[in-house]
Amino acid sequence: MKEKWLVVSNCQTAGLGNCLSLLCPQVDIDTCDIWRFRSERSEWLSRIADYRHLIFNPELQEMGLLDSIPLDNVTFVPGFDFRGFHPDLAYVTREGVVIKSAMDDYHSLIVATAYRRGLTPDSAKQLFAASTYQKLGYFSIWESEKKMLVDRFSAHGLDVRAEFVKWMREGGFMHSKNHPKIGAIYDVASKVARKLQGDAVVEAGIRPHDNLVVAPIFPIYPEIAERYGVRTGSYFFKGFDSYRPFHLDEFIASSYDVYSGYPVEELEVHSPHYEKAMNLAWEQI
Asked: What is the tens place of the pLDDT at every residue in 106-126?
């Protein structure tokens, strides 16, 4: 009988599980995302003993969901979170509830701040330029973001320093700040597989489909792409479950339409750059 492994992570769960299935065909891989695990915790705890290895996102432990679970066969694998390519990506809430945009949970700090400051959509569009990004600090976060990503994996015995160089040579490796492309997930899965299976790992040169492509894809703005040597810079956004990209103009218009349904003072913008954005003399940019 094949041994069984359980993978529990965030939105990267399916990709990680599929990669491990390809690398370890002698193992049955079950997957469950954090939100389902939390809602069905008692049921999953009753089945934990069935699994030879548990591949868990450390967020589970931080959330207290692993209390009472022996950790001797747990391998912690953190999720990707990297803002280097997408410093403008922000979240907007009202009374703690996320406001949905054409990009689902994702918003643009520049657009949201421009709306709060009373700028027109045309004026907001003019802010998408290198001079704005420089003043907001978008160009100064790369090294700290890289260090946080590398350190996050290193803390759990996964050294991705060489892989980071490889990912950069292959182009932008993130669809958004928290959605990596499947190649990056595969490289991390390969390290986990070799840690648990050694020479039994099968490297067939096959990659699973990139399931996160169906989710919103936030563009790498051309000025940011040029700075980091990425060839795929654009102002085309892609929403959920649709393969029709839409341009910055449409994104700004739809965002303004969404925001108009709320009292402007109740729009809460979440971004490390928000305070700086609100304090800028936008009309001088």
From this structure: 999 999 999 999 999 999 999
